[in-house]
Write a structure and sequence with these properties.
By secondary structure, the chain is of the alpha+beta class. The protein has a single domain, classed as Beta Barrel (Cathepsin D, subunit A, domain 1). About 15% of the residues lie in helices and about 40% in strands. It contains three helices and nine strands, in the order βαββαββββαββ. The strands form two sheets. Strands 1, 2, 3, 4, 5, 6 and 7 form a seven-stranded mixed sheet that branches. The longest helix is centred in the N-terminal third of the chain and has 8 residues, at about 10-15. It is globular. The N and C termini lie far apart (about 40 Å).
Length: about 140
Amino acid sequence: MTRVKLTNPVDVADAERGLLRVEQVRRVEVEAVVDTGEMMLALPAEVAKALGLKERGRQRVRYADGRVADVPWVGPVTVEILAREMSCDAVVEVAGTTPLIGQIPLEALDLVVDPRTRDVSVNPASPDMPMMDMLGACC
């Protein structure tokens, strides 16, 4: 489990343009399971609603028990863990479920999970900011 700060970035942009007061920006803090078997960010319906995230479509998901379902996907949402921040989309699960942090947010934030202790930490090779591997052409 790790503490996650979630923010509606559309609200932040509106506040920067003077369309909302800063205190009106929708933010939520939750405890989330870091699930290295999950790909995306998964949020319970009540969290997505509290953040005012708009449904952008449906995403087919396969659960660990083999079930397949089409669930809403929303976004963008800003995710902050251990003072590192990124924006991504999320799939929405039924109300009351536990938020899940999958591989996409973990990679973008350059966080590592110690399988022995189950601790989440910043990558010690890049302690000051996330590092992304780029395998494209240079210069």
